[in-house]
Amino acid sequence: MTLLHDIDPVALPLPFWPHGIHWYGIMYLLGFAAAYGLGRYRIRAGRFPGIDENRFSDLLFNSMLGVVIGGRVGYVLFYGWSDFIADPMFLLRINEGGMSFHGGLLGVMAAVAFWSMQTKKHVFDTLDFLAPLVPPGLMFGRLGNYIGGELWGRYTGRDWGVIFPRAEPDLYGQSVAQLHVLHESGLLDRYARYPSQLVQAALEGLLLFVILFWYSRKPRPRYAVSGLFALGYGVFRFLVEFIRQPDADIGYLAWNWLTMGQLLSLPLIALGVALLWLSRRQEHKA
Predict the structure, then answer these.
(1) What's the CA gap between 39 and 25, in Å, rounded?
(2) Is 63 strand, coil or helix?
(3) What DSSP letter does each residue of 97-120 carry, written as one string?
(4) CA 255 to CA 245: how far, in whole Å?
(5) Helix 224-240 × helix 134-147 angle, to 10°
(6) Among candidates 62, 234, 212, which has minimal Cα distance to 136?
């Protein structure tokens, strides 16, 4: 059984703004709101001694800037370099989409390092506190990808999946009504793809959040929560890439299966293992 994707990415058209308010932007706001609420809960539970809610607000604001700036710059460096070379203003056209998790992570780490230096906190104490706040934002972001009909999966090759008209040049120019007629007749079933965005929302978002929130419910050695986040995200992202369509201008990097997303996830997996090993040493010292 296939599903035709025909969701309007614009949640609220505005007469004074040609782009309107997109669902993707709303998902970003929900992600930040979830991080704020969860962060305040963890502050009150004593998960970050010496830091009050005002200082946490400053940390979250810095992290938000790191996500947006790092995410966009990372996308341009990792996935859109040719577009940037052709038109440097491509970097600023965020309304056209294109954000990289790995770039956003580097941006957050830079923001956290700056904030930690100002507050005289160990940078990994800050990262350990923040790690459980990130997966809900990832979940909302992937839901935004699905609503926007972007970052779709590979063909299922079966009689189930989601048909993303934006992914198929053969379907360009077809009206929504025409697409529905073709879908009901079964002529679009061959375009069925994995809804990889929803799989990522479930794994990198919901499941990773449950794991981290459960694990961090009591004090853990330094590096442990950050390490579990890096390892969990890296493994989940690496696995999902097997059903996610690689970027058209990059394709497979090697062996007809290795993608850029997998290549960028390998350092995260290695970092996660290293941090968990360091946390064990911290535990033994204690």
Answers:
(1) 21
(2) helix
(3) ----HHHHHHHHHHHHHHHHHHHT
(4) 15
(5) 20
(6) 212
| Contact indicator for 102, 200 with CB cutoff of 8 Å | no
Alpha helices in 120-184 (DSSP H): 123-130, 134-147, 176-184
How many of the other CB atoms lie within 10 Å of CB of 34? 18
- Whole-number Cα distances in Å, 231 to 223, 227, 278: 12, 6, 14
Amino acid at 47: R
Query: How many angstroms separate the Cα of 41 from the Cα of each of 7, 38, 44, 45, 235?
Result: 34, 5, 5, 6, 28
* Distances from the Cα of 132 to the Cα of 55, 135, 219, 265, angstroms: 18, 7, 13, 19
The pLDDT tens digits for 46-59 are: 899 999 999 999 99
Instruction: Indicate the residue type of 127.
Output: L
**Half-sphere exposure in the Cβ direction for 49 (13 Å, CA):** 3
Asked if 125 and 48 touch (Cβ cutoff 8 Å), the reply is yes
CA nearest to 264, candidates 242, 234, 228, 240: 234
Q: Which two tokens stand for residue 190?
A: 């061959």
3-state secondary structure of 193: strand
Q: Which residues pair with 112 in a beta bridge?
A: none
- Contacts for 34 with CB less than 8 Å, ≥ 6 apart: 133, 136, 137, 140
What tens digit of pLDDT does each residue of 130-170 get? 999 999 999 999 999 999 999 999 999 988 999 999 999 99
